[in-house]
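Newbie here. two chains, one complex. Structure please?
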Amino acid sequence: MRHENGKIVKFGIIKKDSQSSARLGMLNTAHGPVQTPVFMPVGTAGAVKGITPQHLNETGAVIILANTYHLLLRPGVDCVERLGGLHKLMAWDKPILTDSGGYQVFSLSSLAKINDDHVEFGSHIDGAKIKLSPETATQIQNRLGADIIMCLDQCTPFPCDEPQLKTAVERTINWAKRCKQTHTNANQMLFGIVQGGINHELRTSCAGELMKLDFDGYALGGLGVGEGHDNMITTVAHTNQLLPQDKPRYLMGVGTPADIIAAVKAGVDMFDCVLPTRNGRNAYAFTQNGPLRLRNSTHTCDINPIEQDCDCYCCRNFGRGSLRHFFNINEMLGPILVSLHNIRFYQRLMAKIRQMLEKNEFADWAQENLKRYTDYFSG
Amino acid sequence: MRHENGKIVKFGIIKKDSQSSARLGMLNTAHGPVQTPVFMPVGTAGAVKGITPQHLNETGAVIILANTYHLLLRPGVDCVERLGGLHKLMAWDKPILTDSGGYQVFSLSSLAKINDDHVEFGSHIDGAKIKLSPETATQIQNRLGADIIMCLDQCTPFPCDEPQLKTAVERTINWAKRCKQTHTNANQMLFGIVQGGINHELRTSCAGELMKLDFDGYALGGLGVGEGHDNMITTVAHTNQLLPQDKPRYLMGVGTPADIIAAVKAGVDMFDCVLPTRNGRNAYAFTQNGPLRLRNSTHTCDINPIEQDCDCYCCRNFGRGSLRHFFNINEMLGPILVSLHNIRFYQRLMAKIRQMLEKNEFADWAQENLKRYTDYFSG
């Protein structure tokens, strides 16, 4: 942790790119430092699916994300607390970020009813009625004990008409105030979430209001929901120029390698996405030369690793033929090993981005790779 | 490898127990030495389900088993060969034993038709007709490349009438001759399999005929199929006193901790069984104080590891509450971690047996623990 006048600096910029809004930074959490730009693998309900913390650690992942919504339903907050908190539950002693549950309430649960006070929804598991307010969402996250927690926000779908978008932004701002007031755990950073769809005016007003509340960081929510890469990046760039330089910026739920490169260029510091793990479970491997679909019969007798120069556990030990065989017989090692490779692919991508920023070579690298990865992984 | 008069000693007895038929030994394979008595985790189709070789290695497992029947169906022998052999497929550079496929033909496939020449059966996957003869079973295993391979035998169910048992024994002996004649890979040991159900006379004649063929080791097949612990151990003891002292003895597919202790006492050196992994996948954990069923709600908020003094990866990192949660949400880490613990439990059991033999304390220890484990894990 770096200190300034005796005060812990939660986030510091190490270097700014001269040709873009990209920044190299350092986030100091209660469970250790995080170099940014950073990618957080998703450990939805307390586990990055199929990946032991030992293997996860070896991918270079430092901070991981868990979903408040899932943990609230199972095993429940009381249980997590009695088990010693989220870090103990997951056996992960490095930083964790929890989302607020807002996104999942709208995407997973049935019959979500929202008013200015709270959202009420049916569990996607058993339909049980659950209420989440800015206060309870914050208290729950205080108790789960992640290093970074998120305000409860109202997510909007894409497309979304302006009145609905406006109501969601107003509610998100009000709720952010209530979250900030409720937040008591000094070991946790609290991030505000900017909403407003791809409406720049609404993003401006939302960012402005949240900044008055002085959050530890700012997230960009409601993106990567169907608006497309260009709309997303334009909105990100617009919003980031409004946000304070000295606070981390987190683009939630994004994205493909090209999305990440473009968003870093536009000034984003943090990312999370299910792509490496979800695709990994479906035999889809990311490589620097495009995707490999490992169920494809062309891999049957292929002794080559997924990527020749990859240093992940999977590539150091298994050929494509073995992996195809594992998927073919529904052996867990298939999903496990390809998820591991994909997480390592994302971690190597972020390490490369940080290295390029360090060496002042990011702009050229980004231009070249943005194009390449857009062609490869257009979604 | 130990040498005697310039010849590699494939198996050596280090110490014989003075109060029982138990032996402490060393098996020298092409992929390294194996201390016996040894337990081999089962990697059916080229993977110990859900367990990376890195984690498997950390359990202390040295030699693992793979099933010829499964590998023959998928990915096929040509494919395994083109992938560089079974060790490469599995990313396991320590010893491997393959069974001959005989047992699975009778237990898994439909419409198995047997005659003196071969067995023909329908694949349990797509019904495809496949022929397996002593010659092809041996050639297939030669090509798979395991360190120890098994003769094709005819397994009998329990109970089984004497004429059927007798035919099976005769066929097993004839087939063993043909396997021995066919076997060409000098890097592989070939084991004969003694059949005969719980009929001591048939076991005697089968063992006698096989011994004339001078195999690298002798397996006891057709046990642990419903005859019960006492019948099994009586048959094992009877057969072992006939088998040569200087060759390893392998009790196939067995068993519970009590089965293993009793069989070691009766002179068995090698074991394999799906219990630790299959039970692990079903949330059943072996402990020195009896089984834990981790789906049980009593574990919900329990921060204790499965076993307090266990040094496995699971117990060093996860509490019972986390494990129960993983099973509850169908997270792969549940099956993975409890399988890992159970494999380590079996490896520690074998290490303890070897230690007790080394210290001349096996007999007392066996008596005490045989009783205890019989009470705990009666099946």
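Moderator note: Residues 333-358 of chain A form the longest helix (26 residues). Chain A has a mean pLDDT of 96. Thread marked as resolved.
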